[in-house]
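Q: What structure does this chain adopt?
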Amino acid sequence: MGGGAADQGQTCADPRSEPAVLEHRHQSHPPRIFLRLPTTTDLIRASGACVSFRRVAAGRSFVRRFRKLHHPPLLGFLDERGVFLPALPPYPSAPAALAPALAAGFSFSFLPAPARDWVVRDSRDGRVLLDRTCPLRKMPFREMMVCDPLHRRFLLLPPIPDDLAATVEDPILTDTSSAEAFLIPRCEDDEAATAEETSFRVIWMSQCHTKLFALVFSSNTGQWRAVPSRSWDDLLEGLAWTGSSILYCREYVYGCFYWRTGWDVNMKMLVLDTRLMEFSSMNPPHEVKYNFAVAMVEAGKGRLGMFVLADASDLSYSTRQNDGGGSSQWQTEKTISLGSG
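A:
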């Protein structure tokens, strides 16, 4: 009898605590299972099963994890004219990309009239940056807007305040390419940057006669602020100044934008670190000079990668540790001869 009582005491420990343990265990399963679902459509179907599933799928932390593992499908590209080029079969997202409703969104007919005045300047993360001439502002300042073509939504950016505009000294008015605006991609590894999926940042940059000026707009604050400006002599020492735009071929790698200053032997690269909002410069690999066909990539482990097509016959691939320094830090990893046929 005593043994029975002892056994009974061991098997019926506090019955009130057991449901809580089981509930905790069951609550930990849906997020792990949902993260393994192959598509967003499957996640929507699963979350419709019950209220608790919907609560998990709608959680901000879960959405960030799911999007990091399952990137949105590629629907297409916007070319230099702003024309939408949809993905085609057999690409998995082709049916969605070819839908008439999607094509209508990329006509930008929902923008403030006259819609034809808006010019596409950049597109990233499902957003498109456009601008147009503003009759109330002198060049190089333009009216800017960020829109979501898929949902036909847009946000007119506030004009650059007069006090910030006044700091832009001696802009180049004879070359329209000397001023540019572009979107800053979201940084997936930065929790603060991904805390609000609808947030975005825009940079407006102007090449002036003596300095480079840049302003950044944040949708979180709804305000423009200045990026510390630097003189050309400080940034690109020894570069011959022509009085017109000298920055070309903007590319983005590992949180930094890169521009080339031309294609001759004196070519340098301008760098804008979007995390620190600081400009700097660096030397490119020797193979880049005198070449137009150049592409930068993320080479892994924080290294920059660069493909260079030389004389249409050799494709070289070089890497560089992303920690500043000169061209000596570039290393040629491989050169592939494309031959004549």
